[in-house]
Write a structure and sequence with these properties.
Layout (H helix, E strand, L loop, with lengths): L2 H18 L2 H10 L4 H22 L11 H21 L5 H8 L2 H13 L5 H18 L9 H21 L9 H19 L14 H27 L1 H7 L2 H12 L7 H19 L9
Helix pairs in contact: 1-10, 1-11, 1-12, 2-10, 3-9, 3-10, 4-8, 4-9, 5-8, 5-12, 6-8, 6-13, 7-13, 10-11, 11-13
Length: 297
């Protein structure tokens, strides 16, 4: 592989991670404007669909979904939407930067699922990463004054991470694996949208932003953490592979923490820095330790 292509891969991987880490940047202002997680995600999914549709047309791909993949894609969409909902709900209970860091234990959960259900042997890097992740979560769970994080918030993030891990494993062990990425994502979003339709009482209890300019935040949520992140991830994998792309994913929680501290005034203490470092190191260890197959796109 040429140096130029490798450089492009790293750039795309960084863009993918950074844009996904922008979720709190655009979600928290509309929360402050009175919207709830269900309404925000409803618009995020609705606005993402036409963007993806245009991309599919421009790239000359097909909207055709094989009949054998209907059920898998539908369930994958519901799983992805449930992960999104629990993550966005967690923002109401803890700092968004910490929530994003806790979410980043999902590669470890992928490894555990693969070992439990697909008989992949748990190697030493997995054991070490689990220990470091638990240590990091322990540091994040209690602050310097002795106060603990919201139990509800922690449970919501853990559930979100588990759902996302299931999504990653399932997508590589089902009929959905053969569906082109953009087409698969389009139908996953379409399926997942049903959760937010129900969550908003069939769109009758949707909360609209009070300030007109917050529509820009909703559009940004659909464009950057969803569409741009998706396309950049795909391109990065094409250039440098799944493992380097996943390692660059460590920029996701770092981005969320950066905006949380600089824009929303969230606290940043030595204890929090230590907890974040342990969680990120745990994930890098497990990804670098040969779990490429579990994290394939």
């Amino acid at each position: 592989m040429s140096y130029s292509n490798r450089a492009k891969g790293y750039i795309f991987g960084a863009i993918a991670a950074i844009t996904y880490g922008m979720n709190p940047l655009f979600a928290l202002p509309v929360y402050a404007d009175g919207m709830d997680a269900g309404s925000v995600l409803f618009f995020r999914y609705v606005l993402s669909l036409p963007i993806l549709a245009v991309m599919i047309v421009l790239r000359g791909e097909s909207f055709r979904l094989p009949r054998r993949a209907f059920l898998s894609v539908g369930l994958l969409g519901l799983t992805m939407a449930f992960s999104s909902l629990t993550l966005f709900e967690s923002y109401n209970h803890m700092a968004a930067g910490i929530a994003s860091t806790l979410l980043f234990v999902y590669p470890i959960m992928v490894a555990v699922i693969m070992a439990a259900f697909f008989r992949e042997r748990i190697k030493l890097p997995v054991v070490l990463s689990i220990a470091m992740a638990c240590g990091g979560i322990g540091l994040l769970y209690r602050d310097d004054t002795g106060a603990t994080l919201s139990t509800v918030g922690v449970v919501l993030v853990v559930v979100s991470a588990i759902a996302y891990a299931i999504y990653l494993v399932w997508i590589n062990h089902s009929e959905a694996k053969s569906v082109p990425v953009l087409t698969l994502t389009f139908y996953c979003l379409l399926s997942g949208l049903t959760i937010f339709i129900v969550r908003t009482d069939f769109a009758t209890s949707i909360i609209l932003p009070v300030e007109w300019y917050h529509w820009g935040n909703l559009l940004a949520l659909a464009l950057l953490p969803t569409v741009v992140s998706l396309v950049s991830t795909t391109r990065a994998i094409q250039y440098v592979g799944s493992t380097p792309t996943a390692i660059l994913g460590a920029l996701e929680p770092l981005t969320a923490v950066f905006f949380g501290v600089t824009v929303f005034g969230e606290p940043l203490t030595a204890r929090i820095i230590g907890g974040i470092a342990l969680v990120l190191l745990a994930v890098v260890v497990i990804i670098s330790g040969g779990k490429k197959s579990a994290l394939k796109d």
